[in-house]
Amino acid sequence: MPVLAVHGITATHRSWDLLAEALPEARIIAVDLRGRGRSNRLPGPYGLEQHADDLAAVLEHLGVAQALVVGHSMGGFVSVRLAERHPHSVGGLVLVDGGLPIPNPAGIPREELPGVLLGPALERLSMRFSSREEYLAFWRKHPALGPYWNDAIAGYVAYDVDGAEPELRSTANPDAVAVNALELDGSAGYEAALAALPGPVDVFIAPRGLLDAAPLYDPAHIREQAARVPSLRVHEVDRVNHYTITLAPEGVASLLPVIRERLGAAPVRKEAS
Predict the structure, then answer these.
(1) Where are any strands of DSSP class E within 228-273?
(2) pTM confidence score
(3) Does the structure show a pLDDT above 80 at 266?
(4) CA nearest neighbour of 168 among 176, 152, 179, 157
(5) pLDDT, mean over the chain
């Protein structure tokens, strides 16, 4: 069974380079979601359900009947919607520091929520850089990536460049990112879709968040979600943040035993003869 790897809200398929290297025995399918990477010129809609339908179309195009779906950050939310809308395409779910509803801060106008939820991750989308070296230097200063720099992070950053000098920018489409940032609170039936998933649904939680500080998910919120969704199997990961859980060897190493377990235990679908 292949692995369908789904990236986060401002990321690209290069989030999964280390996973692909660590799982040479498995077929890894990773694409740039609509509005990101080399798919950034695709038109909307950009919602989670559209991403899910796009991924189902990718699997159909590749002749893949079923995949183990591994989603990071917003990719976890896309993965849940994929399982909801195309259940026969999903042979299991692994959510990597994402996929659980993120409560919106109280008192924040809806139009300001993307900036509050994503902070510098959204701010960089409006920035322009005179050279690739300047863009690289910007990321080297990022608190969640700079101290942990490696070849995988360098490749991830180098791929995320669009335009021409001296007006280079991130490949992520700000309009697409803003749409998806408003869909992470569990609204529009998402909480019900998560609760209805057959188990197990493995969830990996990083102890540090987007700025290598406070985690994306408060421990009390994790406990609440686990109590509400009995199919969840929560795995706490040491020594990683929201980015390095997929972009550092120790982060990927924490995922491998469960992914290999799920691949080994996944039911085999018989093709029609």
Answers:
(1) 232-236
(2) 0.93
(3) no
(4) 157
(5) 92
